[in-house]
Amino acid sequence: MHGWLLSGRLWQPLTAELNPAWDTWSPDLPGFGAQPRPRGLQPSLASYGRWLAKAAREQAGDRPLVLIGHSLGGSLVVHAAPHLGPQLAAVVQVAAGGGVFQPRPFRMVRRGGAAFLRWRPGWLAQIPGTEAIRSPLLAELRAAQGLLASSMQRGAVQQLPAMVAQLQVPSLWVAGSRDTVMEPRYVRHLAGYSPEHQFALLEGEGHLPMRTAPVPLAELLNRWLKEQGIAPSREQSQSLASPRSWSSANCA
What we know:
The protein is an alpha/beta fold.
């Protein structure tokens, strides 16, 4: 699942490396990218987490799921996990961490985000060749403001470690050594609450390794999933020994 003001196209370089071995799905969050927000979907982490669980089940059918979250999308994955039950096979978090409430930095981010949303030049999205920046320019105002505020409330931040601690599946936490948006120490901190986790550091990478380092990231994912006994989709017809052989890498 992509992060704040982004869209599903964020994952394209990584899914190109994972396909066709894995069945992948990289949707736009409602209100971001090309997908409108339904009237009943509230702009909060809990509401979007329920939406993600429902949409993932509809996409996967009865196959097991591996949810991958990036940045704020990682919080949505944590909120979706309890609604998936035994269908969830594993969780991967990329540049997703936190769990430490920081009043002043969070206040600055909220103000900066609000200022960007207020003054962003939406007309740029109509110019050919601007596909890469269209999601920040066109994201629905209420959805963008709501998710940003929801993710930085004291209660939501302090709740996150407890939710991570309740994960019932293996989790992989990936950080870029040069990530200044979500520093590796914060990824490692939140990962430490997960009962069955592994932390991986990508040297020289920043906040978007799925775009800047899709090959090493795909290799890391393939290796880790194999260690968890989760087989690629192409092996479904070759092995019926374990329910986890029917898995889908859900790049959401």
